[in-house]
Structure formats: structure tokens, C-alpha cells
Design brief:
Layout (H helix, E strand, L loop, with lengths): L1 E5 L10 E6 L10 H7 L9 E5 L8 E6 L8 H17 L4 E5 L7 H14 L17 E5 L5 H23 L7 H15 L3 E4 L1 H6 L3 H7 L7 E7 L10 E5 L1 E5 L19 H16 L5 E10 L11 E3 L5 E3 L7 H14 L4 E6 L3 H7 L4 E5 L2 H14 L3 E3 L17 E2 L7 H13 L4 E5 L5 E2 L9 E2 L4 H9 L7
Helix pairs in contact: 2-3, 3-4, 4-8, 5-8, 7-9, 8-13, 9-12, 11-13
Bound molecules: ligand BES and zinc ion (2 copies).
Length: 483
Amino acid sequence: MQISIEKRPLEQAPADAVIVPVFEGRKEDRFGAGDLFDSGEVSGKALELTLLHHVPGLAASRILLAGAGKAEKFDPAGMRGLAGAAVRRLKSASVKKIAMWLPPEHAAAEFAAAAVEGAILGDFDPDRYKTADDKKPVASFAISGSAAGLEVAAERGRIVAEAQNFTRALVNEPANRLTPRGVAQAARAMAAEYGLPCEVLERAQLEQLGMGALLGVAQGSAEPPVLIVIRYAPAEVGPKAHLGLVGKGVTFDSGGISIKPSEGMEKMKYDMAGGAAMIGAMRALAQLKPAIPVTAFIPCVENMPGGRAQRPGDIVTAMSGKTVEVINTDAEGRLILADALVYARRQGCTHLVDAATLTGAIVVALGHLNVGLFASDEGLQGRVLGAAKSAGERLWPMPLDDDYKDYLKSAFADLANVGGRWGGAVTAAMFLKEFAEGTPWAHLDIAGTAWLDEAKPFLAKGPTGVPVRTLVRLATDWKDSTA
Ligand code: BES
Ligand code: ZN
Ligand code: ZN
């Protein structure tokens, strides 16, 4: 989708359709909308969409009156949703060229960036394998406004949203078409395109490094495991911190020998959403060039119950030297992340953030609305929450008291990989904390938020691309002083 700023008056915008936000309790008199307000057909309620054709005085042949709710409550998140819903509506009518008017009181950079993000995110559909695809992508989206700084804001919005869609496209791939080596291939291609160094560690190297926890999970699959490393370094020496992004890359989670019920198992292709988010975030950071060095680590495996699969009761030795009793082979994400976290620390990362579709328990706790945030360090927790707020993604802090560690006791090894019936999202996070050790670390459990079961007006069903925007913002906003 081509993104631009349209400085001419909206009436002259050379588009097939123009989107005009209208507010609740504020009658829009232009474009013949006044009568519709008077009759109650248009109210300005949030996400109410009214498409009109051939409105006199407009170069565009269509106008979409887009309900924005109460003007005083309208924020960038509202703008993102509104632009997304409007673009999806126009896309379903095969509209190719779109312009969106920025109301003068909402013409700030943040609103422009959010509108561009919403448009690009709304344009994504997960149906690429339908052979009779009738949904053609939108060709262009212009922000109609004359405020200063719109170009920079729109460009930032474009970079971030395209990265998020890149992540969604990866997550959307079924496990037969995207194996661990396939993820590595996609990461390499992205890194080459944006000039980032990328290494892919293969089984022999993982064995040499002593990554017994990761290798144990990979054992049951015919697909070999990989650990993908993508690096970004700023041109000039800036903050002393080095951010490590670690993402769970399980291309399919059958549960292994502790096999999952077949109902809904097809969704477990999205168990690499954390890893895909890290690759997407690096794609955006390569273009936005934050002051801080950032390295992404994506352990990729397929969790299968093959003849060589690990068994409940097996004891593996992680890279840190800690031994783990594998009580449940379906708690595999924490095992691969354990080794990746240790490796990230050895590579010099001073701050770690991981994202993982880690537990069903986080879905029980927070539903599908909030990412669960667990952090060992208040400063880092504050940064992550601040970044999420600016980026318009919802995260909710969860507890990590030391006492939870008792839940992970094993009679035979240093740790068990599961913690019993209660507090499953917390005990999973506690397990990871054992491997982050003293390094400031934050864990994002995205099991409930990385996949939408039902389409929203502004977002298709399927992969959401959470938490790409938060991660990008975390890196670009980083300053040492507040560390
Ligand atoms: N990938 C799953 C978690 C998950 C569940 C993601 C639902 C998305 C939606 C993870 O590997 C898993 O199976 N976790 C188990 C842990 C249990 C065995 C302690 C779970 O949550 O049931
Ligand atoms: Zn699992
Ligand atoms: Zn899993």
C-alpha cells in the first residue's frame, strides 16, 4: 500500500473514496451529511460506517462517514481502529485509492501515524491460500491534512505496521509450509533485505553449546531445530544497554508425548508468534535505527511425539547447567526459551524481553484482551508498560514472587518444567526467571492475544502481530538515564 500525505483540500483529493471521521453529538454539515445527522441515520457512534456515492463538490466518487465516537475521547488507538475499519469496509467494495481526512483537532503526528497503522493493518487478510481470492489489496492511502510533521509520522506508522503484517504473515503460515528451517529462511531473507547480520545455529552447534533443554523438545520431530540470531547495532555508540529480544518459535505444538486433544489443535501453528514478533520487530528497527543495540534470538522447533521424542520423566541439562525434569512434554516453550535466554546473556545482552504463546493459563487469567507481563526488574517493567501505552497495545502486570518457585520443585532434578494445577502462567514465568538469573528481564505471555478467533471491524481473524509495536517502541524510546 502506497502511503502519502495529501496537502490539497479534501474536496480535491484524487482518490476513489475519502474517509471523513464524524463525531457523536457534533453534526457534520459538509458533504450532505447534515440531513443524515438530522434523521438519525448517522450518529457518529464509534465505528459506524456510512458510504455515500457521488457527493457534489468532491473529486472522489465515494465518501465514507466514519463514526469516531465522542471527540474528547478520541485518541490514537481510536484512530487506528477507525482507519482500519474504514479501510476494511472500502476494501470489501474493491476501492483502490483512499484518502482520509484528519480533523484539525486530531491532526497531531500520533494520530497520523495511528491512521496509517490502522489502514495497513486493516488491509491484511489471512486467506492467501484461497485460490479464488477476490479481496485485492488497497493500492494507496493518503492522509489529508496540512499540519507539520505528518510525513515523518506517516513513515514511522508505515514501517511499524508493515513489520507487524510481516509478523502476521509468518504466524499465519501452516506448519507444513513453515518449518523451523523455514522460519530461519524467512529471517535470513528479511535480514539481507534490511542489511542486518543474521546467523542460524544448527543442531550440531546447539549440541556443542549444551542446549539440552531445547534439543530435548526437538527430538520428537523429523524437522531439525535452529536458533536464529539477528543483530542490529547503531552506527554511533549510544546507551550502554544492549537489548535482547527472545521469542518462542514452536512451528507446531502437538504437545509431544503429552499430546494435546485434537479439538483446536490446528491452531497450534501460531505457537511461533513470539518468535515471529521478534523477527518483525527487527525488520522495523533496521529502518527506524534506534540508539540502542538490539539482538533477537529465536529458538525454533517443532514439538512432535515421534519415536525419538522425549518422555515425561526425562531429565535434561540446560545450557546454564541446571537440570530439568520434564513432567509434561507440552510445557515445551519454557524449555526452548531457557536455553535461548542463557545464550542471550552470554552474548552480552544487559536487558532481556521475551515473548511467547506460553500458557493456556494466561488466557484464563486475562482473556484475549491483555498480554500478561511478568518482570524481574521494576525499571524494565516501567519501560515496557510505557512503550505499550505509546504503541497502543494492552499489557497487564502479573506477579512473580519468589515463593512461587516452590511450585516447580522436583524430587529428581533442579527444577520441574511444570508447577501443578494453579497459577500456570506465573509458574511458567517463574521457570524462565531461573534462566534469566540476575539480568533484568521481562516476559510477555501472548497466548491469549496473538490470535483473533473472530474478526474485528478493523482487524481480520487470525494472527494479530502482538507485541511488535511495543517492542519497536521500547527500543526506539530507550535512553540510559532512566535505566
Ligand atoms: N503453546 C502452549 C500454550 C498455549 C495454549 C498457546 C493455548 C496458545 C493457546 C504451551 O506450550 C502449552 O501447551 N502449555 C501448557 C502448559 C501445561 C502443560 C503446564 C498449557 O498451557 O496447557
Ligand atoms: Zn505446549
Ligand atoms: Zn507451546
